């Protein structure tokens, strides 16, 4: 089905084109150069970074199963923290590096200059060294979205320790598994994490987790609320006290380009989370370049990514990319709907945000609350809007474009993964027209290929659909799964030999633009017609009564696979048999008779990961009436949603 390829395209305004780092002609020229001479291209791009010892080799990559190895700039040395802080001190020491906006609008925001950032990161680095952390050691970070989270990341990078961040919403069990998984020496946490007006007792979660780890793990505690915590002398260390005494200079360690910078677990929407390993030189080059070009970041801009540092988006696009570029990056502790649904937009006005980057799940939630929350804000500072994490349905895209961006802000729909370190496909603000729901074009140096899922053969030409693979490496690519290189090879290099397999399906439309159709697992085959479940979801969400929808395939005697839809209604709508009929007819007219839903189940809530992604693998099991093997549910935001869906599955036959 290719009807989206005829959908409307929005060309960038003259003003956007004139300002942009990259216009259409430059994109074509640079992209061609990056394909013809990758070594030359990436040698030049690495000049964005300050190297201690310059590299001589650019790239040494093998995608052959059994022999996979990925190296960039391998004989160069550098320090990531020095790149993100020290090298800016002469030119922009007093410029704000981080704007911190707390959970409650009644608490004052903080502006942290590059000089202040330097002092604080050095102190944190010295505190970690006092606790015995050395180059190559692992440090788990379990913190709220407070500046100390960025200090902790950069302090690790400064001394060459490898950080692994665990989102503060995770349970003690999930935390313990990650501390043990990387054999961490230190766990950094805070007393409590305020979020949406509520407080998560982080330190007591950490206490519970540490019952299931080695006794030698030390705990560094940051004071956020001053709330009561239990204290174990000899194990627990008081960050605020130690930082006062710590020296305010720490020498950046000389790191090899291929030394690990961090380990981060994937969000777990398809299975057991994987400990993704990113290294130093290539990762930073790629994060810095994509941050500048995708968002068209210029000096003086105020850039805001609403993600949490617990996800890769927070790593690359709150901390490392922006700070490597000497940017001003906003860190937000709260949620979009607290104290009310206009918080995002009020923060944009308050700090005059120019680039705003969020997830479809947040946009859909806010869209459901009505336009007045947006319309009462000014938002005239906004220039570029971004989205990431899931396919964005055209309904939400149009709302973002019309209501938030007032039709004047290009939307960059950035497709990428924890594994890719940075954006792999996205329109660029001044170079490409945008289409609602399309990832459009590959980033420089990225060679996407569409493969036939059965034969693995490359499908050329336009107006085609299949499995999305990448032909060759880019500097931000993950290097291995922590402690399990075999799993790395098996997951990404065994299904389609010689390619990096993304796990996503994709379509290249008649214009040669790319659309992510969702996970390959989410492509269903109904009577011989293949379709992405995202397409049916988009149609459902376009109906005025529907707030959210998730669609999966299930075994169907006649059609092979049937279409099973979980539908969450708008607050003011009631489920009814008439509405079921109406939605069926609606989808038939929107897409075609082949996409007509077989089952519609009302879902008061959908199972989502902590990062807000719908866990379709669980919905698939429920649709298949297979409740015994739901797999790893530790990353679910609200496990009770699943029980409710199972309870209501029965009456669907
Ligand atoms: P796991 O790998 O553990 O199952 P996950 O894939 O959800 O978890 P992430 O790395 O957070 O972990 O997510 C990457 C995936 O998110 C991509 O493979 C893709 O399916 C989806 N995605 C991200 N951005 C976009 C986008 N702009 N459009 C469509 N899909 C996107
Ligand atoms: Mg994944």
Automatic annotation (TrEMBL):
The gene is acs. Its cofactor is Mg(2+). It holds the Pfam family ACAS_N. GO terms for molecular function: acetate-CoA ligase activity; AMP binding; ATP binding; metal ion binding. GO terms for biological process: acetyl-CoA biosynthetic process from acetate. It comes from the Bacteria. Its EC number is 6.2.1.1. This is Acetyl-coenzyme A synthetase. Keywords: Acetylation, ATP-binding, Ligase, Magnesium, Metal-binding, Nucleotide-binding. Residues 86-473 form the AMP-dependent synthetase/ligase domain. ATP binds at residues 389-391, 413-418, 504, 519, 530. It catalyses: acetate + ATP + CoA = acetyl-CoA + AMP + diphosphate. Belongs to the ATP-dependent AMP-binding enzyme family. InterPro entries: Ac_CoA_lig, ACAS_N, AMP-bd_C, AMP-bd_C_sf, AMP-binding_CS, AMP-dep_synth/lig_dom, ANL_N_sf. CDD domains: ACS (cd05966). GO terms for cellular component: cytosol. Mg(2+) binds at residues 541, 543, 546. It comes from Phaeobacter inhibens. Acetylated. Deacetylation by the SIR2-homolog deacetylase activates the enzyme. Residues 535-613 form the AMP-binding enzyme C-terminal domain. The modification N6-acetyllysine is found at residue 613. CoA binds at residues 195-198, 313, 527, 588.
């Amino acid at each position: 089905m290719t009807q989206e390829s005829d959908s409307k395209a929005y060309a960038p305004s003259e003003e956007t084109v004139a300002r942009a780092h990259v216009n259409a002609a430059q994109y074509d020229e640079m992209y061609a150069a990056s394909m013809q001479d990758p070594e030359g291209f990436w040698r030049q791009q690495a000049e964005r970074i300050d190297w201690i010892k310059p590299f001589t080799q650019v790239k040494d990559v093998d995608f052959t199963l059994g022999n996979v190895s990925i190296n960039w700039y391998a004989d160069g040395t550098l320090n990531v923290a020095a790149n993100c802080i020290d090298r800016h001190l002469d030119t922009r020491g007093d410029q704000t590096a981080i704007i911190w906006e707390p959970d409650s609008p009644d608490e004052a925001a903080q502006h942290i200059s590059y000089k202040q950032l330097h002092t604080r990161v050095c102190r944190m680095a010295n505190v970690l060294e006092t606790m015995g952390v050395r180059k190559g050691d692992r440090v788990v970070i379990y913190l709220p979205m407070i500046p100390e989270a960025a200090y902790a990341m950069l302090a690790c990078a400064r001394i060459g320790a490898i950080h692994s961040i665990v989102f503060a919403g995770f349970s003690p069990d999930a935390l313990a598994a990650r501390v043990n998984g990387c054999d961490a020496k230190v766990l950094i946490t805070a007393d409590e994490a305020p979020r949406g007006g509520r407080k998560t007792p982080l330190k007591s979660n950490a206490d519970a987790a540490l019952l299931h780890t080695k006794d030698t793990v030390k705990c560094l505690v940051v004071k956020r609320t001053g709330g009561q915590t239990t204290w174990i002398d000899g194990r627990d260390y008081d960050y605020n006290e130690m930082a006062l005494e710590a020296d305010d200079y720490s020498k950046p360690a000389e790191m090899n380009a291929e030394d690990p910078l961090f380990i981060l677990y994937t969000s777990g929407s398809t299975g057991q989370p994987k400990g993704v390993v990113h290294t130093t030189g290539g990762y930073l080059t790629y994060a810095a370049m994509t941050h500048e070009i995708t968002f068209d970041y210029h000096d003086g801009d105020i850039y805001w990514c609403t993600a949490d540092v617990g996800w890769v988006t927070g790593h690359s696009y709150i901390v490392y990319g922006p700070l490597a570029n000497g940017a001003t990056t906003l860190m937000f502790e709260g949620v979009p709907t607290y104290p009310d649904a206009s918080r995002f937009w009020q923060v944009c006005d308050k700090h005059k945000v120019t680039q705003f980057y969020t997830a479809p799940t947040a946009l859909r939630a806010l869209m459901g609350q009505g336009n007045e929350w947006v319309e009462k804000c000014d938002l005239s500072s906004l220039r570029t809007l971004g989205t990431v994490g899931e396919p964005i349905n055209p309904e939400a895209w149009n709302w973002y474009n019309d209501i938030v961006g007032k039709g004047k802000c290009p939307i960059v729909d950035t497709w990428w993964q924890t594994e890719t370190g940075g954006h792999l496909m996205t329109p660029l603000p001044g170079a490409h027209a945008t289409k609602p729901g399309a990832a459009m074009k590959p980033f420089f140096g990225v060679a996407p290929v569409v493969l036939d899922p059965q034969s693995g053969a490359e499908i050329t030409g336009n107006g085609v659909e299949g499995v999305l693979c990448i032909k060759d490496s880019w500097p931000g690519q993950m290097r291995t799964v922590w402690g399990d290189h075999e799993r790395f090879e098996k997951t990404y290099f065994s299904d389609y030999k010689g390619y990096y397999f993304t796990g996503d399906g994709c379509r290249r439309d008649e214009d040669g633009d790319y659309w992510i159709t969702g996970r390959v697992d989410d492509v269903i085959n109904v009577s011989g017609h293949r379709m992405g479940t995202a397409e049916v979801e988009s149609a459902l969400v376009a109906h005025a009564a529907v707030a959210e929808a998730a669609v999966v395939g299930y075994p169907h005697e006649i059609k092979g696979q049937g279409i099973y839809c979980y539908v969450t209604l708008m607050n003011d709508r009631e489920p009814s048999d008439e509405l079921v009929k109406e939605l069926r007819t609606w989808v038939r007219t929107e897409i075609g008779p082949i996409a007509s839903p077989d089952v519609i189940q009302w879902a008061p809530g959908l199972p989502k990961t902590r990062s807000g992604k719908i866990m379709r693998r669980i919905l698939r099991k429920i649709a298949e009436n297979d409740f015994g093997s739901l797999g790893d549910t530790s990353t679910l935001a609200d496990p009770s949603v699943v029980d409710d869906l199972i309870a209501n599955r029965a009456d669907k036959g």
